[in-house]
Amino acid sequence: MTGAMTEFQYVQELVFERSAIVLSDDKHYLIESRLLPLARGLGLQNISDIIDKARRTRDRPLEDKIVEAMTTNETLWLRDIHPFMALRRVILPELIARQPPTRQLAIWSAASSSGQEIYSLAMILEDEFPQLHRRRVALLGTDLNTEMIDKARNGLYSKLEMNRGLPAAMLIRHFSQEGTGFRISETIRSRVEFMQMNLAGIWPILPKFDVIMLRNVLIYFDRPTKQRILSAAANQLAPGGYLFLGSSETMMGICDLFISDTAEGATFYRLKEHS
Amino acid sequence: MKALIVDDSRSMRAIVARFLRDIGIVDVMQAGDGQEAIEILEGSDPPDIVLVDWHMPVMDGLEFVANVRRQERWRNMSIMMVTTESEQDQIVRALAAGAHEYLMKPFSHEALTEKLMLLGVICPTTAAVVGS
Q1: Looking at beta carbons, which pairs linking B44-47 to residues 24 or more positions away fall under 8 Å?
Q2: Predicted ipTM?
């Protein structure tokens, strides 16, 4: 790789070398959204810093992190698996048993990106919880990026996206082929609402949620903003509700409103007074 | 953890073997078609996971999967089709024949890892440690 390359070209080559994935020129915008959190997490100020460092040092673990950020942070269907196992085996059965059947069950994917997380939950509810078919269930996905919201609402995914953690059985049941991609069924699509929302801004009026998925998004924010977001999430959680952060995220030293608990290998949080 | 890669492309077998090695699966057998894979299975302890291509000479992936599924002794092996075929009805046929998972080529290291997690062949913690 030569010094004359642009930052994006460098990332394109690196990603191709390591993963065989071609980042087309129109994916330039991903650099900002994927590499900035990584740079900040490493104590660097901006994207140029992290790219300079990788080019200068050719540090393999750093290069791997860049490749992973450019490819894996692509929202996956059952990302990390464990939270979904905890939801299907422990949390959803507990919520269903505890709540009166007339009450609405509400789940929020607070950084929903292109929709995979909340659609995964919608598919799990459809397939594994027939007792919910007659109950009111509200599934909400929000994201800062309106392009992602549009993509999520559209529900059309490429082969590459379908490969990312989606069980083949779910693909068969809930998608139909459309060109070279796959579209989520109207049954599942119609159960989820998407809305643009800035977690760091003023929150709109939202219902209380039984489950909030706030995964892999706090890394984007500085500490005071993280604290504000977690306090707001605490206000938004229904009594006895559950909050998930990303598997490598913690609220230790940031927020003391919650206590952590584990099930099926997943860590989740509940409000102190309702634990 | 032990794996068998069945693919008529030597370079594809090498790529998959490298991906597996990266996540700690080093005991990897390879076959160039379904018939050779059956012979390997008959002469060794069954692997935990078989990754099998669809189109191959002699015996294709679908026939291989159906043959393996008829044998009680191989019932605990997980089988994943890894193929360029990406029509939905092909995925239906592969699962109906007895494949547990399906991965469409081309795929990334991460996509393979995630599918192996779905199959319970590796756990997320292992993958994270190895990949870090």
Answers
A1: B45/B2, B46/B73, B46/B74, B46/B76, B46/B77, B47/B2, B47/B3, B47/B4, B47/B77
A2: 0.89
